[in-house]
Amino acid sequence: MPELTNRFTSRRGLLFGTAAVSAGALLAGCTSNESDDEPAANDQPAAEDKPGKEVTIGFAGPQADHGWLNAINDNAKSRAKKYSDVTLEITEGSNDTAQQIGQIETLINKKVDVLVVLPADGKALTQVGLKAMRAGIPVVNLDRIFNTPQAYRCWIGGDNYGMGLNAGHYIGEKLKGKANARVIELAGLDNLELTKQRTQGFDDALKNYPNIKKVARQAAEFTVESGQAKMAQLLQAQSKFDALWNHDDDQGVGALRAIEQAGRDDFLMVGGAGALSAFQAIKQDNGVLKATVLYPPTMAASAIDLARALGQGKGVSGMAEFEIPASLTLYSAVVDKDNVDTYMSTGFK
Amino acid sequence: MTQHVSPPRDGTDKTAPVGQPPSWRGMLVRADVRTLSLLGVLAVLILIGGITKPDEFLDTRNLQLVLTQASVIGVVTVGMTFVITSGGIDLSVGAIVALSSVWATTVATQEYGFGGILFTAVLVGVGCGLVNGLLIAYGGMVPFIATLAMLASARGLALQITDGKTQIVTVEGVLDLGERDAYVLGIPPLVMVFAVVTIIGWLILNRTTFGRRTVAVGGNAEAARLAGIDVRRQRLYLYLLSGLCCGIAAFLLIILSGSGQNTNGNLYELDAIAAAIIGGTLLTGGRGTITGSVLGVLIFTTITNIFALNNLQSDVQQIAKGAIIVAAVLVQRRTASTT
Amino acid sequence: MAPEPPLLTMSGITKSFPGVRALDGVDLDVQAGEVHCLLGQNGAGKSTLIKVLSGAHQPDTGTIHWRGDPVTLRSPIAAMRLGIATIYQELDLVEHLSVAENVHLGHEPTTAGFVVRGKAARASTAQLLHRLGHPEIEPGCLVGELSAAQQQIVSMARALSHDVRLIVMDEPSAALDPDEVDNLFRIVGDLTADGVAVVYISHRLEEIRRIGDRVTVLKDGRAVAGGLPAKSTPTREVVALMTGRNVEYVFPGRPSRAATLEEPVLEVRGLAREGEFEPLDLQIRPGEIVGLAGLVGSGRSEILETIYGARKPSSGQVLVGGRALRPGSVRAAVRAGLGLAPEERKAQALLMLESVTRNVSVSSMSRFSRGGWIDRGVELEAARAATRELSLRPDNPSVPVRTLSGGNQQKAVLARWLLRGCRVLLLDEPTRGVDVGARAELYAVVRRLADEGLAVLLVSSEVPEVLGLADRVLVLREGQVVHTAPARELDEHRVLDLVMEGSPVASASPAAGEGSPAS
């Protein structure tokens, strides 16, 4: 390629090259996110008992391309660190079912004592869960549930229906006594079942409040960009409403931006999941966001607790049974101004 | 070669005679049939919006909203139109927007303030475009593959930078540009940027040697080469241009959403390609229209707006979007072949 | 001819396209076992007529009788079922499939209706190729790897793989060398002996004389003469029917003044490309037309493209006005004043979606622009002046170039270089696809440009063209110049002798490409 070499040895080329390199160096410095970057994790005390038998826990989760999933990983890691008798084998997160199956099989072959699995796709990973159980490795299934209870020893996860239900009740109580109240819903990705469950719970709760009517619903995609776009449209469509239920705090960042841009503050907003930015806004109490219903990423820390208990053959302290339960559905607590300080440390970015 | 009486290839011609001397009035009279049919589609949509939701749809705020939402993808589409006109394709636009937007909103970048964010967004876009261009023009890679590779790497790098977290912008100067107070004569700054990019794009494509070379390379790369055009350098510049547009779009998106996230720009590549094709740019290259592309973007944004205002859900929206793509292309073909 | 009804009768066929009446009441009858030639200038309606005949177009009015029965040819498949096969000029083969797969495309021999019997297909293909005089083509070979001439044979084998009664050939000899043309004529003779009718389209009158039985002449969508005896009708009369004029090949006179006084503007020193052509020395002075004569595969086009920088030489130099060009750079060549009118006009020279103006101005854009900004008024006027000088029709440079006839498209390419102000014009097959009347005009244009001081290097597969137009002729054989002489000292036979003389490969094998290293 004579033309190429020629151009790049020319003086103009050199100048341009130098500029590009220095700009590159400047840019490279700009990728840093370090300054106040501490993993959001649970400060709840770890199980109080004394160190027991050494347990190796294998952990496989999806790619952390979303704040909540990133918090899941952080919670699992920091929890495991708190136990001197726990070794955590964590895999590179993957959204590819085949790759995740491979990773879990590797963990089985390594003969870890207990497996904690947050599948990229619960149904698709059922077989590998069964395989681990048959190999005598108890599986703690995190959040996205396998097809059959045979594939896990214990399932622990959030309550999507309960999120909607609690959000609906919170809004219902706030709007009590207000005639012809109007609410709108900014849902998450519509092709996910959990979105349908959250909507169902919300609708069921509202049935208890005949004065409230849901007048609009649009689905965003759990991203800031889609949250802003859909919320802007909703605000234009509904010149007057009293409350907004947003499924996800991440897209809520975009939704709040749209609300700010439209200059609207005549309603209350309830978020979902429990992001740090949402907690901070609730605490400041100078915007529309008044509460958020939890879908706590701390469940990963609990999963580690359960896995450790399974590995050491213990039950859950505070319960009468000798065995840990087969399934644990977490409560979707409503976090508002009154209790936000309690939850602040669990907020994820 | 045999006859020249074969029928005009349907859909691909019947544009007004090209290469006329400048005459604004003449241009209006000869306005392209294709453009007219796009305007027709848009008019029908406006009619539907106006009938179903007269108060919400026919409203200054809604016009501002539609144009603002069109700005980000619109700027990307202008760049994409150039690339497609040259016979190429850029699948990495969405990923470049994502990477630019997160790189420009890291804690470290935000310390440099407004200028730092703008500079980084644009430079990352141009840098990605440069890599695309070098791989395609001088590395001999097929555009589809080279930009697909860029799509994967840029998304990956964006994820690595953010760790999946949402990077909230705290620089007031940037945020303010998205507020109503920043509107000049009722025009949001984002829309102004979109308009300026569109006008400059139109002028470059239709009035400059750069535009001519782009069309020539897309129409017949071998003929362009034998006519003495530096085809490779032109290709390099085109992917640079597309990257630049992505950088600008990323900055607009940062203003709009007040944040940077690795999921930004999701499926922009498909939206931009669809808008350009609906607008009348040939996917095989050799003909491109900025006006058409921008109308394509406006049609899509208006559809989304009307659907949201009427509270139709995303399943219906997606079905209708597909149907409208097909309908718009069919309408154009029909009008183009009967005149 | 037997008194039975003709194999095919078309009567009163009309066909219109938006803005064009392509066929205006054409009659054509074809007897079994005859070679019926269709003659006409570009735009006369030949292609449309054969597309109607092959079922690709539906006529607006008119009737078609096949063996005396009225038929409607709704689709190419319907025509094929009757036994009508068409070999188009632009070959419709799938490059990535094998020869056998192409031959049997759409009617593969199968077991149980869907399992393709590859072996049977290859065997029957080999048989067909043998019958066509090309047993050396491998049925398993990919079509894309074959030469143009071989691809044409494959196309013919495909036609014959059906039970064919009438075969339409659209300029089959255009891409062939003389000996390949001989083979083609032998095939045509075999077919007609079997009672198959051939509709033969060609620009070359002498071919029609050799193999034709009857001639139908089309002009402006009408049959101006039907069923003329091919052998005995005087050429003058045929040309007059086609053009309305009494001209055959008319070459302009050579200038009396000698061009030797001026310094050569183009000088080629030892230019070579390994495997394509041997070191070549060449000088052309302003006002001189130099011709390169040789067979397909003799390296003619390769030499032209290497001089032009489109191919990189393995050794040697090109000098323009005494200054050496950067090897392998088209831009350097164009800047120095070289211009190429390539062999494949549509694929290599023209921007088919664009106007004549833009096609003409593409190489001189900097002249009409300031800071990249194009002054379209100046551009249009310059393009108009350049096209007028070459009397390009229509006299409106704003029309799309694709609506022009072959001859006028070639003029648009020449106008491009005229506008650029080039000093050396490289012409590769300048009259391919250009009809008889327009050829004479092109010859005159080229000579006039030379008289105005241009140096011209001409490549043509038509020996009379080289002899008639050039001042000096270089005869090429297998990439080597075997003879150089002033054109007036050579005649066609001498050139053909030189081209083939002493070359066992060329005389022993009729296959194109074989023996010559070029691909």
From TrEMBL, chain A:
InterPro entries, sorted: Peripla_BP_I, SBP_2_dom, TAT_signal
PROSITE patterns: PROKAR_LIPOPROTEIN (PS51257), TAT (PS51318)
Primary site of residence: other
Pfam families in the record: Peripla_BP_4
Any Gene Ontology CC annotation: cell envelope
Subcellular localization, as worded in the UniProt entry: Cell envelope
Record-given protein name: Sugar ABC transporter substrate-binding protein
TrEMBL record, chain B:
Record's signal peptide: none
GO MF annotation terms: transmembrane transporter activity
GO terms for cellular component: plasma membrane
Transmembrane segments: 33-51, 91-108, 114-135, 182-205, 236-256, 290-309
Record keywords: Cell membrane, Membrane, Transmembrane, Transmembrane helix
Annotated InterPro entries: ABC_transp_permease
Membrane topology: Multi-pass membrane protein
Main location: membrane
Stretches for region Disordered: 1-21
Subcellular locations according to the entry: Cell membrane
PANTHER family xref list: ABC TRANSPORTER PERMEASE PROTEIN YPHD-RELATED-RELATED, RIBOSE IMPORT PERMEASE PROTEIN RBSC
Name of the protein this chain belongs to: ABC transporter
Organism, scientific name: Streptomyces dysideae
From TrEMBL, chain C:
Keywords assigned by UniProt, alphabetized: ATP-binding, Cell membrane, Membrane, Nucleotide-binding, Repeat, Translocase, Transport
InterPro entries for this protein: AAA+_ATPase, ABC_carbohydrate_import_ATPase, ABC_transporter-like_ATP-bd, ABC_transporter-like_CS, P-loop_NTPase
Any one GO molecular-function label of the UniProt entry: ATP binding
Name under which the protein is recorded: Sugar ABC transporter ATP-binding protein
SMART domains found in the cross-reference section: AAA
Coiled coil regions, renumbered to chain: none
Domain of life: Bacteria
